[in-house]
Input
Amino acid sequence: MIDSPPVSVDAEAAALAAATAARHSYSKLIAFLAARTRDVAGAEDALSEALAVALTEWPRSGVPRAPDAWLLTVARRKLVDGLRRRRLDEAASAHLQWLAELRGDNDDEQAAWPDRRLGLLFACAHPGIAPELHAPLMLQVVLGFDAASIASAFLVSPATMAQRLVRAKTKIRQAGIGFEVPPGDALRERLSAVLDAIYAAYCEGWSDPVGADARRRNLADEAIWLGRLVASLLPDEGESLGLLALMLHTHARRDARRNAAGDYVPLSEQDPARWDAPLVDDAEALLHRANRCAGAPGRFQLEAAVQSAHAMRRRSGVIDWPAIERLYDALCELTASPVAALNRAVALAETQGPAAGLAALDVLAADARLADYQPHWAARAELLARSGRVDAAQQAYAQAIGLERDPAVRRHLQQRLAALPV
Amino acid sequence: MEYMLLIYSDPNGFDKLSPSQQAEGLAAYGAYHEALKKAGVLKNSNRLRPASAATTVRLQSGKTQVLDGPYAETREQLGGYFMIDVPDLDAALSWAARCPGAAHGSVEVRPVWAM
Output
């Protein structure tokens, strides 16, 4: 005789279905609900209440055929309740009217919902919101990350991060920040803020190479998901493809950054066989597509091209430093970023020798933005060592070691320091 | 604003390291110390002897008690501190993350409450 399946299996299946529905439709539903009311926090509350209802009802009634539509209907009801509770002003009654007309019950209409996610991303990266909050806001609003995980990733106290996110959402509502995708020329400018924020999230996730923090490893994957979303919604924008190519190139090397002993391996010493070949191929294809888009290549296309030049080593065995130098020239001209200038100096040292690289670094030494930037000191130390200036190299290595967060990189720098001739 | 970065770690952890690892660990602290100085944010810093070297004084029912060591033995003990002066908590956290103590233990960041 076969035992009937225990209730917990159903409960688990229902919980899984709810979680899957949430994962797939969270950003879509938030964007759709908040686009009209501009009340992101209200939409989040309503949707999380709807999810809680789903988790208690679905195990009994079964998972509905269109979970998204079901969630929307319940969330809409919660929003209406919330608006009623808060006493009505004129704007609220207009929203109520809109909500009353909105139907999510019918699955056929699900396809007709406009996808407002791109607009939501643009709202999160609006110039009226502090740039350092763009990425945290996207992670919370579009992907549903909690404030504490975001705070850890961005090295901010959880209480502070929660407060900043609340303030930013209030600003969206009170200042009437729109969920429209900007038209024409404004699109490129505003898009760059969206892409910058996605890349910031990616970089925070990337800086946890051992994957010790599961939430952070997730962050890099989630940023790629956002990158894919933007690339699919704006397939003719070179920069949206460029950013995705850049992230995929970098992501392809995530396992090659450490050897079996857990030691840090710099890019130029990584074994290309340990790179994720399908990801590299994806990145290359995206970059080719980006290069065919209208307009001059932007920051992310150029940076992806640099990574592509490094990736060529898997076939040719050599790094194309002259190409990398030219790309950093273009990046310096385009962005005036001190980090691009630093990388240009490193490329220059490869094409023209360490003296040329050091001369370029000396020009940068006065830039206060690089004073506490570890890679600046590591690059300087490396070039000083190659030029035989051992004392100065020792000091620069010590500075780099003192500024590094990652113990594996710190050990690597200490080994370089110890290997200097006495 | 002044912040105290308090390093908590296993006091026996250091003894378990090989001599070369110990040298590497001390050098990492030395480099961190120098980086704080160079950035102009360091006020003061020191190591502390383990809690086994501590003596605790407390007045109980009007009588002074002197006891060896701390009351509770915990795995992580206060092992040292860096007092820094930085513009805000974000800056203090970014220095705390660079402290070698964040890797082998934990670093508590406390704002100084001036008297």
Q: What stands out?
A: Chain B has one domain: 2-111. Strands of chain B lie at 2-9, 42-47, 55-60, 63-68, 77-85, 105-111. The longest strand of chain B covers residues 77-85.
